[in-house]
Amino acid sequence: MKKVILAALILLSLAKTTNAQQGSILLYGNLGFSSTSSTEGSNTTKGTNFSIMPGVGYQFNDKWTTGLNIGIISNSTTPNGGTSSTTSTFNIGPFLRYTKPLSNIFSVYGQLDLGYTSTSYPTVDGVSTPSLSGFAASVWPAIAINVNNGFALNFAFGAISYSSNSQTVSGTKNSSNSFGISFGSGASFGVSKNFGGSSKK
What we know:
Order of helices and strands: HEEEEEEEEEE
Low-confidence stretches: 1-19
Helix content: under 10%
Radius of gyration: 20 Å
Strand order of the largest sheet: 1-2-3-4-5-6-7-10
Strand content: over 45%
Number of helices: 1
Structural class: mainly beta
Number of strands: 10
Shape: globular
């Protein structure tokens, strides 16, 4: 705990009074990880979820940014004494971000992500499952801490998401739609960097 507090104090001491500038290029990346374990009798199943989403955008002013992002999500399940199986999802599409500066150091923002998504499944007992593809959209809030020279730390804490997918199995097309709210869970963190631009007059 002391190390966490010390790290936070160091970051705040390094923080500069800099905000994203008009006409700058934003590079960012969000990272998420979670681990679960469930036990039934003497059998334990473990699962891990890993996600990474890099993106690049153009900052029109200190509030609006638009660009393109890529998402990679990996879900692995390991049954008791068994072999791990992994489901992988790939996303690509545009994003739109609205930022509200709270001070020269802190800001909050909401981001809308849209894009194509494709999910591949592991082969189980020699049987493969066709991939799932479709459209996904999500809106998520985050807090940004401007650190130094355009660098910022970003902390996200949930999302509202919607997806529409289809899958062809044995010549039959199956479709599904889902909607979810995950505020309070699925926290992630990332780093961003703004290049170039001009200060607001």
